[in-house]
Amino acid sequence: MGRAFVYVILGGGVAAGYAALEFSRRGIAPGELCIISEEATAPYERPALSKGFLLPEAPARLPAFHTCVGSNDQRLTPKWYTEQGIELILGTQVKSADVNRKTLTTATGETISYKTLIIATGARALKLEEFGVRGSDAENVCYLRNLADATRLVNTMQTCNEENAVVIGGGYIGMECAAALVTNRIKVTMVFPEAHCMARLFTPKIADFYEAYYESKGVNFIKGTVLSSFENYSDGKVTAVVLRDGTRVPTNMVVVGIGIRPNTGLFEGQLVIEKGGIKVNGRMQSSNSSVYAVGDVATFPVKLFGNECRRLEHVDSARKSARHAVSAILSPDKTSDFDYLPFFYSRVFTLSWQFYGDNTGEVIHYGDFLAGRFGAYWVNKGRIVGAFLEGGNREEYEAIANAVKLKMVAQDKGEVEKLGVEFVSNVGRHQERNNGLVLHKPLYEWQATAGVAVALSVAAFAYWYGRRRQRW
Ligand SMILES: Cc1cc2nc3c(=O)[nH]c(=O)nc-3n(C[C@H](O)[C@H](O)[C@H](O)COP(=O)(O)OP(=O)(O)OC[C@H]3O[C@@H](n4cnc5c(N)ncnc54)[C@H](O)[C@@H]3O)c2cc1C
């Protein structure tokens, strides 16, 4: 028994939804495309799960956040897929893949064949057991990767009003969940091994600001140690966490956000894997020319970083890489290599930040940390390669994105520190002032114009998307 499709998207998350819309816009015949997903719902905007979905009042619920509303585009309900003749094979796990035969086999034993496959399997949440701690199956221990997890988290929060929660992990899932728990009137202790929160991105100075803000909301931080075991786990409900340094923290619930692992398992030994993801070229094409990979599971060359391969775990990258793969499949002659400006953001409480580029090199902080209006540039070999801004407006976010895209030269650290966003906000003005701030001037006028236009449109999209995200 089996079915055959021209195009198969394996995975039904963010990237799948954006790829489906791109297929439909570029034109495919009914019955040519199917999406196979382990989840029982049509693709949705996953970031909503740690934001609007967890609100105590007027929480976001499906169908409100099906893709592609996160980029202010069409909302693709199950009806839309039916109307387009796109088959949604939901609640179906693919158990094996054979890229030579071009087949996938599902848990029910069905064989689905394709001419072109897009792998969009994303990632899964790392479990405590992978670090030698038992207890993930306790009633009040929650993870957050999919809708089922989020529903469980909401139900658990509802039984813990005015009680205590421990959040294990200081990354963005930990930070966003801690904020949501506080908003739901739950007292939070965060535990993580690093010296400060968001250690992969934040500098100690940036982290200090957010930690102080969280503390002002009642969050307690225990840093530099890890979970060792749970108390009373065997009774079904954890009543306390025990840390490696011996500290015991009584709790009514636990949220675990200790990282993710890309879902590459089906393709290991069949496709080239690099940096934990499926290695693709600038067309998102893997080492097998009929197989593409997009989103969290793909490791792709980032032009901006000299084509260094990166695997990114952010929604903007999932959306754009998915669209790019479809363009490369349906319009190969008109599609050049993916040119992506890494971008991510977060919104917690009334705070919001955006980051563009790469956090390597020397850091220059600027702004007023006490007032919550600050940022940082990462400068490598005299050029801005990364930019962070808390509490910016549209023009400011555009400006920092632009600076990274153009790799603006930043030679005078004192001036950069003093001017902050202003340093990058007006290339022309800085050039006119000729005050010792050397800006990156492309060799030809047209390159400059095109570069600015591309950067502005990327930044405008990013900001627009960021604003949309406030709801989710
Ligand atoms: C709670 C949460 C909040 C987030 N917030 C932000 C944010 O604020 N900003 C940001 O930039 N990013 C955020 N992200 C990250 C962002 O959501 C991901 O980068 C994005 O979802 C990746 O899209 P994807 O399509 O590659 O993978 P996913 O959206 O994870 O989709 C993968 C899909 O594949 C399915 N699948 C996997 N294996 C199989 C199989 N064998 N058979 C069938 N189906 C399979 C999965 O069930 C899933 O449906 C957040 C992530 C989470 C979990």
Automatic annotation (TrEMBL):
It catalyses: 2 monodehydro-L-ascorbate radical + NADH + H(+) = 2 L-ascorbate + NAD(+). Residues 341-423 form the Monodehydroascorbate reductase 3-like C-terminal domain. One of its GO terms (cellular component) is cytoplasm. This is monodehydroascorbate reductase (NADH). The keyword Transmembrane helix applies. Gene3D superfamilies: 3.30.390.30, FAD/NAD(P)-binding domain (3.50.50.60). SUPFAM superfamilies: FAD/NAD(P)-binding domain (SSF51905), FAD/NAD-linked reductases, dimerisation (C-terminal) domain (SSF55424). The chain crosses the membrane at residues 446-466. GO terms for molecular function: monodehydroascorbate reductase (NADH) activity. It holds the Pfam family Pyr_redox_2.
